[in-house]
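Exercise (ungraded).
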Amino acid sequence: MTVIKLVKTPKKAFNPQRPAGKLLLSQIEHLEHAVGRQSKATKRTEGQAARYIAELTAELLRKAQEPAAPAPAPLAGAAPAAASPSPTVNQPIAPRAQTPVGTKKVGTKHHLMAVPKTAKKKANMKRSKNKSAARRRRS
Amino acid sequence: MPPAGLDNLRHLVVLMMENRSFDHMLGSLKAVDPRIDGITGTESNLDTKGTKVLAQPLADYQGQLDPDPDHDFDAVDQQIFDGGTTPTMQGFIKNYFQQRRDVGHSQKIMYYFAADKVPVLTTLAREFAVFNRWFSSIPGPTLCNRAFAHYGTSFGHVDMSLFYINTKYKSVYQRLIDANHTSKLYYYDQTSSSLEVINLLKDQPKLFGTYEQFLDDCKRGTLPEYSFVEPNYSDHDGPDGAIIASDQHPDHHVAEGERFIASIYMAIRENPALWSSTALLITYDEHGGIYDHVPPPSCMADGFVAQPKDTKTGQPFLFDRLGVRVPAILVSPWVAKGTVVDDGRVFEHSSIPNTAMKWLLPTFDNTQRSPREAAAPTFLDLLTLSTMRTDTPEFS
């Protein structure tokens, strides 16, 4: 029987001071919504975010023991397509050789077209501008 | 007659890690097993100076992918399409460059792990079944991708926004519980908590457990039929001192994730009755902005449309193509050693709920779940052996 030795994680890998990433901040936002707290966009370290997540989770679990309260209102987000999903059939997936790569299509479901190069360029430029602005804001 | 392994199956466990691509974690295995669709040594991207940069086995556990590579929908769009309309996988360095504007640093997005740096994942891949074609469900970030594992859809979302779900389809856990099956989500601890199913945590706390409870359930043989395990998402203090994040999300230490994967595997393996009756799927939610060479294929649309304001590409998204490829490994003593799943099937996270449903609720009404989920290929047919293996590895 093969026994594989695990790599030891160095103590210095622990860094609760690193800024909390998007994942933890989104998790906080979800938990705040679930417990009915006003969401505050606050800069937090990972350690601070973790402590707050623990507090929110405890509150959520406490609330779950209480008699049923009305569900949180749905938030704005992507709307379902006008047509609901078509009745499902188990469609066999095409063999890989025949599986087309996911080329980009644009437009509505009923009107698909190739991306005009200039439009794409403009979109890229806009995106790059937005990112530069965001970077400036961050710094 | 079903294979003996499937006949003996009582538990399906899914462990979903964070933000690493197939090539990044397993690409090195091409050199030891050419059937594995990893790195040949010729894969490259151009950097922002037009220099060709090869994928290289220089990935380290921590410190290279800081800041966290962008993997929002529009960023992944650039990584895959590089400004065009066909998926060339040529935009990874250019996209990462935008975050630090440092050419040398941006090239690190092409690094992958040498096999001996990630012995747990690479050993399990070679000892059991590794999927050559398992893709994230959406070319976007964590939450919408994880939603496909729980609901078979993200309800039209391509981002990290809230989705309060039961608008259309129930989670796979709820469906199973409603039909008197057993199912549980195990999050690491209260400080790491659960990620994307917080409404379930509020309404159905009995569906949840912690990592400690998972270990205990394994020991006592009380694991439910279907379990989903979440790693620890943060460096935080625990009752016994520092707890290091084990999710492998950049820039968390990859070795700690390896230890976590090994602990889940060993917890199952150390209970002989459980080991003989359990299949463990290990996968990653999405690629985290890190290079992979396989263009994502098209797929069945799931009936939702994400609007241009959400995709931020100026175009809507019909959920008709997949995200970047991620590692996926099926572990069971009933899986033949060295299985490489490369039979033309294209797997994605909807394969997870569909596999659980086909196994436990095969007559479930398909109109009550997403068309994407109902069409997704399942993976329990990989338990092909008629005699259980006794040569499986241990980690210590």
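Further reading is listed at the end of the chapter. For now, observe: The radius of gyration of chain A is 23 Å. The helical segments of chain A are 22-35, 46-65, 117-138.
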